[in-house]
Amino acid sequence: MKILIDADACPVTDITIQIAKEKEIEVRIFCDTSHIINSDYAEVFVVSQGADAVDFALLNQTEKNDIVVTQDYGVAAMVLGKEAHPIHQNGRWYTNENIDQMLFERHVLKKERRKSSKIHGKGIKKRTLEDDLKFEESFKNLIEKFK
């Protein structure tokens, strides 16, 4: 088992690395050239900018039973296809039972946004300590379940 992080705009990279280090699990971080990420523990893969370049680099290194931290539902679906275990930055586990519904909801919202330029979400709410603690607990549980 290793942990792969889709690190472009990922707010839980440091938490993920800290827990992985405690559990002595290998970590690989993937980002594009517009981000600067350094780690004394994880291996960092910097991929050239381009549509889905980071996603494909991450997926190419994902193997059965790996854990992948991503907020991208499409990446999560492909990770599940590799029999690995994706987790969202909010701590929600992507599973074969919930991924279709999540992809469908994303599709519907995207379709609605295209129909009307007046539809705007409230944006992303500021991350809280509670959000981090929720992710941390869920992430530790995921490791324990599949280690």
Quick structural summary:
By secondary structure, the protein is an alpha/beta fold. The protein has 5 helices and 5 strands, in the order βαββαβαβαα.
Describe this structure in words.
The protein has 147 residues and is of the alpha/beta class. It has a single domain, classed as Rossmann fold, CATH 3.40.50. 43% of the residues lie in helices and 16% in strands. The protein has five helices and five strands. Strands 3-2-1-4-5 form a five-stranded parallel beta sheet, sandwiched between helices. β1, α1 and β2 form a beta-alpha-beta unit. The radius of gyration is 16 Å and the shape is globular.
End-to-end CA span: 7 Å
- Helix content class: 40-55%
- Looking at the overall shape, the CATH architecture is 3-Layer(aba) Sandwich
Structural class: alpha/beta
Strand order of the largest sheet: 3-2-1-4-5
Range of strand content: 15-25%
Kindly report the CATH topology: Rossmann fold
Order of helices and strands: EHEEHEHEHH
Number of helices: 5
Average pLDDT number: 90
Silhouette: globular
CATH class: Alpha Beta
Rg result: 16 Å
What is the count of β-strands? 5
* Overall number of structural domains: 1
Largest sheet: 5 strands, parallel
Poorly predicted runs are: none
Assembly type of the chains comes to single chain
